[in-house]
Amino acid sequence: MLTGSILAHEMMHAWLRLKGYRTLTPDIEEGICQVLAHLWIESEIMAGSGSNAASTSSSSSSSTSSKKGGRSQFERKLGDFFKHQIESDTSVAYGDGFRAGNRVVQQYGLKRTLEHIRLTGTLPF
Questions:
Q1: pTM
Q2: Where is the composition biased (Low complexity) (predicted)?
Q3: Arithmetic mean of pLDDT, 104-114
């Protein structure tokens, strides 16, 4: 789960470059990348809840998609811990950047937030 969140974060950096986003300040760029990592962890924790996918212990498939329906309590707690680490980071770029980015994504949505960042290089306030 931690590896996946790191990949989500790093892929967001790549996406920003591929989409032509200007050079962003570290708090904006690292913050929005941390928002994506946080969203990825949330999706992994919630994935398949209410799904008919079998749990990992009884699944005949070893695919990742079948695991999503059966997150163990340990995996959910681990995900909550990783989310907490992002939420409580004390650094300016990663911590403050995440909290500011997460606040505006909650208010305006990810798409509108990213459009605003692309146009202005700042978060909407």
A1: 0.82
A2: 49-67
A3: 97
